[in-house]
Amino acid sequence: MTELTVPALSLVVLVGISGSGKSTFAQRNFAPSQVLSSDAFRAMVADDENDQSASAAAFDALHYVAGRRLAGGRLTVIDATNVQDHARAGLVALARAHDVLPVAIVLDLPEEECWARTERRPDRSFGRGVLGRQSRDLRRSIKRLSREGFRTVHVLHGLEEIEAATIRPQR
Ligand code: ATP
Ligand code: MG
């Protein structure tokens, strides 16, 4: 078991390609109400969690809810790939605006494993190339997180580290 320390009031940003296990990790380590997932918000605004054309509206709504939670002093977890710089920049800015510490937890699972999982999922139908792009973005992202303003960065490499991780809130 590895304890990941996370400030009791923080904005926890999960980072990982599709299929890396972000939603599973969030479900295992946080209360359902603490987790805001881009899929859930796509479904809320467009009735379809896979409708990428709804992403702008979905993230707009997600940021709004996250902001209201942080204003209320509630730890909040963002369950989205967050492999793109601009996605993380918006979340760091949101945390700062509410005087809350941004924390990154990276799930770094081999791309092949993620693809094998994706192929088995009835709820995902994107092509192999999408994952390749996300992987390249992820590699670049890992090096940048501290500089981007994440005060705590936890990088979990591989299935064993992901499964062994637990969260320790730090007061
Ligand atoms: P997306 O970005 O597409 O939402 P995700 O990162 O949230 O993906 P999950 O939905 O958590 O990924 O997991 C992807 C698939 O892998 C699911 O079918 C899930 O059941 C499986 N999975 C997740 N974690 C594990 C694990 N530790 N061991 C085995 N299978 C897992
Ligand atoms: Mg997910």
UniProtKB/TrEMBL annotation:
Name of this chain's protein: Polynucleotide 3'-phosphatase /polynucleotide 5'-hydroxyl-kinase /polynucleotide 2',3'-cyclic phosphate phosphodiesterase
Part of the intact protein present: 1 to 171 of 849
Source organism per UniProt: Asanoa ferruginea
Superkingdom of the source species: Bacteria
